[in-house]
Amino acid sequence: MTAQPQSQTSPTRKRAAALISGGLDSMLAAKVVLDQGVDVEGVNFFTGFCVEGHTHAIRRKDRSREKRNNALWVAEQLGIKLHIVDVIDEYKEIVLNPKHGYGANLNPCLDCKIFMVNKALVTDVLGRGYDFVITGEVVGQRPKSQRADTMPLIAQESGAGDRLLRPLCAHNLPPTLPEREGWVDRAKLYGFHGRDRKPQMALAHSFGFTDYAQPAGGCCFLTDESYAGKLADLWSSRGVRDYDFDDIMLLKVGRHIRPASHYKLIVGREEGENNFLAGYRKRFVHLTTLSHTGPLTLVDGAPDTDDLILSARITARYSQGRNADEVSVEVHHLSGAVEELRVTPLSPTELEPAWQVGA
Ligand code: SF4
After folding, report:
1. Would you state the pLDDT for residue 93?
2. Model-level pTM?
3. What does the alpha-carbon distance between residue 94 and residue 80 come to, in Å, rounded to a whole number?
4. What are phi and psi of 282, to 5 degrees?
5. Which atom of ligand 1 lies closest to the CA of 116?
6. Gyration radius of the chain's alpha carbons
7. In this model, does residue 260 exceed pLDDT 80?
8. Ligand 1 pocket check: which of 21, 111, 219, 248 to mutate, most ligand atoms within 8 Å of Cβ?
9. Where do the domains of the chain lie, and which CATH numbers do they carry?
10. Are residues 131 and 15 in contact, defined by beta-carbon separation less than 8 angstroms?
């Protein structure tokens, strides 16, 4: 997907691909180079794990928050073209078998950065023939991928070599080709270091940027402990480390409750999530409450009759009838048959903490 009209390009101007996550650092890095007269285009890789507005768009409590694609918004602020590239299938190998391992959760940040720089510049996935690539990395900012010893590794293993420019921390690194060749003025780059965000915020202020995204732990769900716990549970319950796109989308939504290894419930937490889960109801046995307002519950796995009774009791527990003696629950089977169960809602003490996945 491409957005924004392209700025006028002179044949002598150098062309750079800026990795744009939608956060502040990549925005500033692109801006610093853009202001030096380089023809900058943004590249945003869609991995399926991107935080980008997904749960904000679904959950009612987040509805007051502005819904926007932050990468597109950044491109609009900078007046650059943005390419959004779907890498869901290729990225799987990075998530499943990261050569350099994971960060605090299931985030393969180092392999991820190597992959993205390689795709943008070396593999030239867009066929744009960029002269160099820009990232918003800052030495010392992230424990896994943004360390003094991993910066050269990303340049080397991505194949970009010294055509990888980090404008925000360039003064802490050896001069790159764009600096040595005078495509950019090294004196106008920065020497940010460490986890302190104040220099970035001051630079943003100097550019007049006020309304930028500030992702807490990172740019994707893989840095999230709860999400990583659900993904690890998915792999262990299936006995295989694999996923498809629907799997990773469903991990972003609902309460995940696994009463036994052979099945898991995904219980909508509110109307927006129920509506989202309803889109999957043909693929899963699912439960709804009849006598009281309640959630939609998907059952992932192979539940037997007793499992479905427990599933109905759990669903009732999260309904308006949680304190009632009996709640009527409909079980919608994959065959299309619908069965009504009258159950006592599960009490809080009966709900085993160990069943709550990623809690
Ligand atoms: S937080 Fe996610 S998208 Fe960002 S570098 Fe790490 S793995 Fe890649």
Report:
1. 97
2. 0.90
3. 29
4. -75, -20
5. 8
6. 24
7. yes
8. 219
9. 2-221 (3.40.50.620), 253-355 (no CATH)
10. yes
